[in-house]
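Mods, move this if it's the wrong board.
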Amino acid sequence: MSVVGHDIAAACQAVQQGKVIAYPTEAVFGLGCDPANLEAVQRILTLKQRPAHKGLILITADLQQLEPWLLPLAPALLEQVLPTWPGSVTWLLPVRPEVSPLIRGEHDTLAVRVTAHPVCRELCQGLGHPLISTSANLNGQEPARSVTEILQQFDQQLGFVLDAPLGGQLQPTQIRDGRTGQIIRPS
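Not the wrong board. Structure tokens:
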């Protein structure tokens, strides 16, 4: 059985050990791991049965944690993005070419969010780097909104399940294209 608890330090330790964790986000529970650990990233894709070409989201506590993952952002782009962060808007921003296709998919952008969810922020601060964030569900299924739902789908496959409240949003975060401002996924 997956370990379930309220301890953010234990969740960080599981990530540092290369494990996949489940944790609350703004609207649903997410699956996460260290994005620099490609074996763990592949494990998430396998668990979810998610095609790698779609790409994944990175959440973070601050913009500086994203610098190793993104190309330098133009001032006009920053003017558009920064007022929405920390917050519940995920942006597609220019990705460094060396970032693995397991994370960016077949895109020249990376989906990133400086989260306002206090548990997610504390996780990223404790880790000192971004965290993969993808909904905790099998591909095509409804995302998990409770620890019980997570355990029904992924029991014994997760290193830690962080039992804490969701952020209160009814829908997953909005996704916007940084180049065009277009809304890709409404919230």
